[in-house]
Hints:
By secondary structure, the protein is α/β, with parallel strands linked by helices. It is built from 13 helices and 13 strands.
Amino acid sequence: MLNSRHFKALTILIFLHTSISIGAVNASPIVKIDGSSTVFPITEAVAEDFQIAKRGAVRVTVGISGTGGGFKKFCRNEVDVVNASRPITASEMEVCKQAGIQYIEMPIAFDALTVVVNPKNTWSKTVTIEELKKIWEPVAQGKITHWNQINPAWPDKKIKLYGPGADSGTFEYFTEAVVGKAKSSRGDYTASEDDNVLVQGVASDIYALGFFGFAYYIENSKKINAVAIDSGNGGVLPSAVTVENTSYKPLSRPVFIYINVKSAERPEIQEFVNFYMKNAPELVAEVKYFPLSKEIYNLNIEHFNKRKAGTVFNEGTSGVNVKLQEILKKDPRL
């Protein structure tokens, strides 16, 4: 049975097929987007609805090369918009600067980065940040291989780890929040930019553990279980309530889109961005992420209309434990 999102996607295909049949598709303006697999479901939903609203007159392509991969394309001027599951880094800022690429930064949702296990796992329903660090820090590679090495009460069974690849913003955020330094991680785990691969890995192995964005957990909650995270005040599960009241920490984070300032001069980009911010609250919730306040979406539009370029995150930091309402009052820098 088709759900509403599948029906919308089918509608787009009909529009595009009609356009091709009349030879008009080559003349259609294109909005090119790439980047984070975590942000992909949000932007894909916006792109689908936008193309329907435009009756196929504008095409939107959305790729998944990871946040890092997306920024590489963005700073080479290959895409108009990059999906990012963390703020732009200092090195990416420099690459874009050298290429003459300026950008408008827009937070679009909150995500609860979710640690997951197999449903048959009965021993690690709650995991502390210290235990996660013991699992994932670089010195664990080849040494911390069994569950009971993390906690003596856990089984003497080999742990199988799944996580995003090194180009993923989720990987960068998780390592900074848990290990203390971005990209500081053991390397002997199954890595993939496709979160569905990670889901299937955990779902098929009782002794597996992985992490990825909240939407992929919710979509597969019958196959995998979320782990409660204990950062010092007891285990907390990811949810709309725990994200909003900031008790789910340090794995609650903002996610973003970045728009090329030169691309912003094109009418189709202006229409797409305005459509995105207007419809974000509904569509973010539809794909199981957490919407921001209306004030922040309005502020995004204000920054876009003024071409307010740069980032409000100091030295390209990851955004761990940030308060958006406060940080967005700062002047962005390139």
